[in-house]
Amino acid sequence: MNAKKRSAQADQGPSPAEMKYSEAMEELEQILEELEADEIDVDELSRRVGRASELVRLCRQRLQHSKTEIEEVVADLEALDASNQEGDVARDADQPT
């Protein structure tokens, strides 16, 4: 890998896979501020927009993963609750009145 390519990668910070969601969001906010300042040259603009695209993709993946995990936990809790309710109904039916 040549020195110029290594330098460009170092300027972009850690790879998205190594970042926490909050770090990616923070970097996205920084990029947005840079773009809104309208003082960025065209070459840098292209690089920063590319980086933003990577970060947005990472954030979407992390959110989808979290959503899936939460849905699984909720489904497990609902199944447990339904099972407990069925047990309560069976116990109530067995008790003399």
Describe this structure in words.
Helix 2 packs antiparallel against helix 3 (42-94). The radius of gyration is 25 Å and the shape is rod-shaped. The chain has helices spanning 3-11, 21-37, 42-94. It has one domain: Helix Hairpins (Orthogonal Bundle), CATH 1.10.287. The longest helix has 53 residues, at 42-94. The protein has 97 residues and is an all-alpha fold.
Please, how many helices? 3
Which oligomeric form is depicted?
single chain
Major sheet: none
- SS strand fraction: under 5%
Q: Which properties best describe this structure?
A:
rod-shaped; mainly alpha; 97 residues; disordered N terminus; single chain
Secondary structure: elements and pairs:
Layout lengths: L2 H9 L9 H17 L4 H53 L3
Précis, in short:
With 97 residues, the protein is mainly α. The protein is 81% helix and 0% strand. It has a single domain (9-94), classed as Helix Hairpins (Orthogonal Bundle).
